[in-house]
Amino acid sequence: MENNPFSLKGKKILVTGASSGIGRATSVQCANMGANIIVTGRNNERLQETMNMLAIGEHHCVEADITTDSGIFHLTDNVEALDGIVHCAGINTKFLFKFIDMEKINTMYAINCFSPMLMLQSFIKKKKINKGASIVLLSSISSNYATVSNALYASTKGAVNSLIRVLALELSAAKIRVNGIMPGMVKTEMMKSYGMTDDELDNLSKSYPLGKFGEPVDIANCAVYLLSEASCWVTGTNIVIDGGITLR
Ligand SMILES: NC(=O)c1ccc[n+]([C@@H]2O[C@H](COP(=O)([O-])OP(=O)(O)OC[C@H]3O[C@@H](n4cnc5c(N)ncnc54)[C@H](OP(=O)(O)O)[C@@H]3O)[C@@H](O)[C@H]2O)c1
């Protein structure tokens, strides 16, 4: 379709966490919409699997652990100026509040919160985010919808929500937009780390008003919207995609 406002034709888009789940689906959908993708993550084998799933384009793969200074330096040094970034890398291990300690705090904050801050700052300092670009950070409904054993994860995503709003304001002068996506439970590897049985997961999925968990592509399609000209007047917001669970 000519003049499709959702097209990403020719845009250069970086996807973190591209070796799995939402990041992989986002890479695939963005390539389907005509973008040239830079996939990044730590696991080269799974990154290559993602590369093999992409529609034809000028795609690149950069292996990096973005919780380290050297990883961020390696990534930001090895990409050309970007039209879009989707930060999907993240972890979620469940702990009752009384079992949280400094090591767990550091590990979870390092990837969920500090890495987007320091990675984006590095791209900005190196002038590698083009005027008119769009940045999308994966938050979570957990940031304002309470569930047991989720205090640490929820707090990292609450910090991301605040980052989105301030960054959107600071980068508006360069016409760079910054938005978030807050998914409910989506069927990825992350869900397997929750230690729930199949029956428990099945019951939980049925409690969602739309009767099921999300698929990675449901989130990826929102990322496409936020990266595209269709959302050119949208900045500083956070879109809930949750099958209706937070209506309760
Ligand atoms: N799934 C859900 O139900 C859900 C709900 C709400 C929000 N979210 C958010 O959505 C995002 C994507 O989650 P997902 O479900 O797709 O998870 P996933 O399938 O477990 O994928 C997580 C990704 O993060 C990357 N990653 C982890 N640590 C990293 C590090 N130190 N450096 C670089 N990459 C790292 C992993 O890549 P490597 O292993 O290759 O490093 C992997 O590609 C996360 O931010 C998550 O919090 C997910």
Describe the protein's architecture and organization.
- With 248 residues, the protein is of the alpha/beta class.
- The longest helix is centred in the middle third of the chain and has 24 residues, at 102-125.
- Helix 3 (69-77) packs parallel to helix 4.
- It contains 8 helices and 7 strands, in the order E-H-E-H-E-H-E-H-E-H-E-H-H-H-E.
- The structure holds NADP nicotinamide-adenine-dinucleotide phosphate.
- NADP nicotinamide-adenine-dinucleotide phosphate is lined by residues 16-17, 19-23, 41-43, 46, 65-67, 88-92, 111, 138, 140, 183, 185-186, 188-191.
- The site of NADP nicotinamide-adenine-dinucleotide phosphate has 29 residues, from helix 1 and helix 6.
Q: How does the major sheet shape up?
A: 7 strands, parallel
CATH topology: Rossmann fold
Head-to-tail CA distance between termini = 39 Å
Q: Give, in order, the helices and strands.
A: EHEHEHEHEHEHHHE
**CATH level 1 name:** Alpha Beta
Structural class: alpha/beta
SS summary, helix count: 8
Neighbour order of strands in the largest sheet: 3-2-1-4-5-6-7
